[in-house]
Amino acid sequence: MKDSFDKYIDATRRTLSSNIAPIHYKEHIKLALISARTVGIKLDIRLCYTSERRSEAVRHGHKDVVFIDQYLGQTLSNLARIVHESTSTAFALNYTAKMFAEHLRAHGKLREALVCARVHSQDDTKLRHLPKKGRRGASIFFQERFLVLHETYHFILKEKPLLRHSVNEVIEDYFDFLRRSRAENQEIFGDDDPKILNMLAADPDKLSIGLINEMVCDFFAFSVCVNSVSHGSKILGRDGKYLAAIGCLEALKSSQVVNVIRDTARYYSRNEIDEASSNLQDVMHDYQVRGRFMNWLCNTEPRGVMRSDQSLVEDIDSYLENYHDKLGVVAFTICEAILDGKFEDIFSADVEFVDGLLSSDQVDLNNSSEVIDVMTNWLPQERPLIEKLQKNEGESSSKYIKRLRQMLK
Amino acid sequence: MNIAIQGPKKALIEIEETLNGKSLAYDKFEAEGFDGATILTLLIDAAEIITPAVAAVLAAKVATKKQIVLKVDGIEVQANTPEDAQKLVVQLSEGRKGTDEG
Asked: Which of A4, A49, B10, B75 would bridge with A19, disulfide CB 3.0–4.6 Å?
């Protein structure tokens, strides 16, 4: 029986509840509930599976529920594949197009969603074709754990605001580090260009309270995540804490991509381009500060995170380089171009093709929603969809779907 | 079918007044928005209570207020013009069981 909170999620997001697999989150949620119970808080944590790719704490009357979006977890997994395993930027383009298609579809922008779905449906850059490499499994495990804990700590700190005092010392240490970095960079670059200085090291005295709150939650989530791994773990070996630490950093970096794409699609769909530019700059800035804070934590955390050799530093550097070259540069350039009014230019060939179909009267845009869902793999199996359409709308609908899919290939 | 009307607190005051004026029941939710501000969501059970006339009023109000979003089954309804609002009325009315109160 669905309660008000479930109805809230169903009405505000595109959901696919049948895809929820609680087993993957059992341990993370248990850890989050223990963290909350330790400070006397009872939490209701629920899973959802939505195209929003966003966890959320919701209040209704006097009750609160924290929703963890499992589709966000799957997205993190795919982004990790791109960063760790992809061989060209085409993979990032392919997945960015999928995310845009799904968000634009949810915003009711079917033509643009259809264009992006077509860009995504180029089979040669499907992520499933990539061979599995290295430590992606552990990375995803800790990324998801970090995000569950981060969301939980938002809630815990709202209920117990005094808890944040225990983090003051760490935050102050980090701010001292930022001040030293700024002073060093000022000596090298001068202070003519504050943008460069801020890019290299943010000014701690100008960080918003909201951002500091995020950093406090990041710290708690990082600490619990790292300390949830015992030294010499049977599965993870001696490097367990290190894998947890770098997983937290990766979660932040991937979240940046997910959030910037979601925000871009929202601004674009609602024609709020003026607001978009400065807001997205703030989002990028805040994620940069949080990413650097996490990187700093990985390197200074005194409880045995670091390996005795230099490989942690090297691995983080190598990850950040791959993140930028294989994913960030593609995703953020597309976002920037879309907000610059260049949607039609970036995807010109696909725009032309889709517009051709629409103007030929062979395709009715109002009936293309489910095609977009199939092309973006939101609905993974075509057969049930077609059977459903046959049952409800007669033979013509299934033929229509097949024909349209064929045309869009 | 549930209809969600989302937006910042201030922007939703008129919508709430409309619902209260029509004695329509709704559930109210609070969550943190994209920029850290509180976002309210009013959830209306369209199948039980909403009529085309009320839907038209709501759609028109959403169409004139940029920050308010109207969603049906997680899909944002684009209602930037009175024509869009009219289409919306049809869409919202599809799931209703109640009678039009004019």
From this structure: A49
What does the domain layout of chain A look like in residue ranges? 87-96+105-128+347-408, 130-338
C-beta separation of B88 from B70 below 8 A: yes
Return the H-helix or E-strand segment holding B75: strand B75-76
Neighbours of A329 (CB within 10 A): 13
CA B99/CA B52 separation, integer angstroms: 9
pLDDT tens sequence across A221-267: 999 998 898 766 666 666 778 888 889 999 999 999 999 999 999 99
Q: How many CA atoms lie within 13 A of B35 on its CB side?
A: 13
Our measurement of the distance from residue A378's CA atom to the centroid of its chain's CA atoms, rounded to an integer in Å, reads 17
pTM for this model (two decimals): 0.88
Contact B76 A10 (CB under 8 A): no
Give the distance from residue B57's alpha carbon to the nearest chain A alpha carbon, in angstroms. Answer: 20
Per DSSP, the three-state class of A370 is helix
Quickly tell me which residue has 């009175």 as its tokens. B82
Summarised one tens digit per residue, pLDDT across range B8-50 is 888 888 889 988 888 888 999 999 765 667 899 999 887 666 6
The CA distance from A247 to A242, in Å, is 8
The Cα of B68 is separated from the nearest Cα of chain A by a number of Å equal to 10
